[in-house]
Amino acid sequence: MRKSVRMGILMTFVATVVGVGATGTAAQAATCQGHIGSTYKSGSSVVGFGSIDSACASGSKATLEIRRQVIPGLWSSVLASATVNGPGYDQYVSWNCTGQGTQTYRTQIRWKNPYTGSYDSKESTARFSC
Question: Which of 47, 70, 81, 125 could lock 74 by a disulfide, CB 3.0 to 4.6 Å apart?
Answer without folding.
Answer: 70
